[in-house]
Amino acid sequence: MRNILLIAEEWLRLVRSQKSFRILAGLSILLGLLLAAVEITPEEVKVLWSFRIPLGGTAESPVLANEIVYGILSFLITLLPLITAFVAVFTTGGVVPEMIRKGRLEVLLARPVRRYQVVLGAYVGGLVFTALIAGILLLATWVGLAVRGRFIGPEYFLNLPVIVAQYALISVITVWIGFTLRSGGAAIVVTLLLWFLGKMASGAYAIMVASKELTMDKELEGFQGFLAGPAGKVVAAAWWILPKPGELGVLTNQILDACLEDGLTRRLLTRAKQSAELAAATPPLADVAFSSGALIVFLLALTSWSLSRRDL
Amino acid sequence: MSDSSPISVRHLTKIFPGQPQGRRWPALDDLTIDVPRASIFGLLGPNGAGKTTLVKLLLGLARPSGGSGTLLGAPLGAVAARRKVGFLPEGQSFPEYMTARQFVAQGAALSGLGRREARERAVPWIEKVGLSGVLDQPIRTFSKGMKQRLGLAAALAHEPELLFLDEPTDGVDPGGRREIRDLVVGLREKGITVFVNSHLLGEIDQMCDHIAILNLGRLVTEGPTSEVKTKALGGASARDRVRYLVSSVGDDMRPFLAQIPGLIDRVDPTGTSLEVMLPATDNAASELIDFLRAAEIRLRTVQPLEASLEDSFIALIQADNRQRLGGSPQ
Q: Is the ipTM of this complex over 0.95?
C-alpha cells in the first residue's frame, strides 16, 4: 500500500506540473467568481452591483428566475461532473506513458516495487488528481453562489465522490491502454471511443428496461421489437461490459433533489419528480455498481498481469 | 552456487522472442559467474554482447529463458533482495518536475526507508556527489553530468549492499569522473559490492579489481583484472612472463637482437627502443641489463609494462570471434 501511495504521489506531482492543472484550477475559480458576480431575483438579474437585466417576474410568480437558477444548478450538478471527468481524461491520458518511458520504469522496478503497485499507483494518482480538481471546482462554485446569498445544501459536495466514481470508471481504460501501448494519444482516443460506445449501449439498454415497465410511444414500438430479439442480448452484453459513467446520473439527480429541498418552486418540484421517474426507469444502481466494479478490477488485473509478463 | 557471492548465476540463458532476424545466438548463453563480495566488478563487451541483458536479468527486469541465479542470496526476481540494491542505468530518464531532494528522497522511500529517514539521508548523498548548491532546484535545470551525479545519489541514498552502475560517468566532465571514481572506490572500502558496466576501458581498468568479458552472449573470460589482461598476451604461459620496455640513449640495439635474453616483442625503427618478454623470475631483468651493459649499450630505462585493458579486450574479442564465427568481421 505504501509503495502504491508513493507512486501515486509521484504521479500527482507529474500531473500538477502540467499547465492543464493550473488552467483547470484557474477556470474553476473563474466560474466561482462569475457566480459570485450574478444575483438572480424574481424581478431581475443583477451583475455586480449596477448592471441589471429585468426579468419581469414577482415574488409570487418567479418563473423565469427559477428557470435560470435551475439551469445553473443543473449545469453544476449534472453536466459539470461529466465535463470534469472528460477533461481529467485529457489531462491524465499522457501521464502513464510518460511515467513508464524508457529509463524510468526500469529504475522504479529495480527497487522493491511490484509491477501491480506501479499500475495501481498510476490509477490511484489519477483518482486523487480528479478529486483535487473537482474539490476546487465544487468549493469555488459553492462559495460563488453563497456570496450572493444563494446557499445550497452541503449535499452539493456529494458530487465529489460521484465525479471521482465517473472518472474511476473511464480512467481504468486510460491506464490499461497507456500501459499496453505506451501512447498517450491512443489512451485518450480508446477511452473516449469506449465511453461513447458505452453511452450508446446505455441508451439502448434503458429503452429495453423501460419498455418492460412503461408504455412505449408508437415510434419506439418497432425499436422495442428489435431489442426483443438477439440484438437485445448484444445490447445487454455491451451494457454489462462497457463503461457507463452516465448511469451514475441517477445519483446526481438525487443530489439535485437534496440540494433544492428548501425553497423549491412548483416548477422545480415537477422537475425533481420527473427525475425520480427517470431514475426508476433506468437500470438498478446495484447492477451499474457491480458491472462497473467488475470492469475496473478486470482491467487493472489485466494491465498488471501483462506488465508482469513483459521483459523491460 | 556460492553463498558468499552477492551475485551468482549458473547457466543463465536469455532468448528474446523477437530477436533480430539472422541473429544465431541467444542474447545471453549459458553464463556462469560469481561476483566476489566487496569488489568492483567490471562487465565488458562489444555492443550486443549481452551486458544490459545480464543486468536486467539480475534485477528482475527480464525473465531468464534458462538457468538460475541469486542476488544477495535470494533467487533472481525476488523483490525483497532489491531493498539492498542500487541501480544507475544508462540514459536514465528523470522526472524533470521534481527537485533533487525530492527525487533522491522518493527513491530511498521506495527502497524501504521511512519518509523522514529518506529525506534526511537524501541530503548528505546529494552533497557527496557535488550537488549541494542545487538541492531544491528542479531537475529540468540540470545538465547531463549533473543528472548523472543525481542518479548516483539516488542509487546510493538507501545505502545498498550491491550497486549496479551502467556507464556511470556518461556525460560527466573529467574532474567529475575522478570524483565519481573515488566515490566508487570508497564504496568498496565500506564493503559494498559494485557491478560496473562501461565502455570506458580506462575507467574500468582503474576502478575494477575483477572483470568479465562477454561476447555474442557468452562469457569470454573473467577473473582479477591483472589476470585477464595477462591472459590476452598469450594464454596461460603469459602469467609467467613480464613485458619490459628497454630504451637506450641513442644506441642502436638491433645488431644484438638475436642475443638479447627473452622474446623481442616490438622494436622501433631506430633500434633505440624495444619491448622484451622475460620470464617472471627475480633475476631475469638483471640478466638483461647485464647483457646490454656488456654490449656497451647506454641504457635510459628498463621498465616493466602492463598490457593495457584495451589491448587485452580487443585481442580476446578477436580471438573469440575467430573461434565462433570463423573469422567473419563484426
A: no
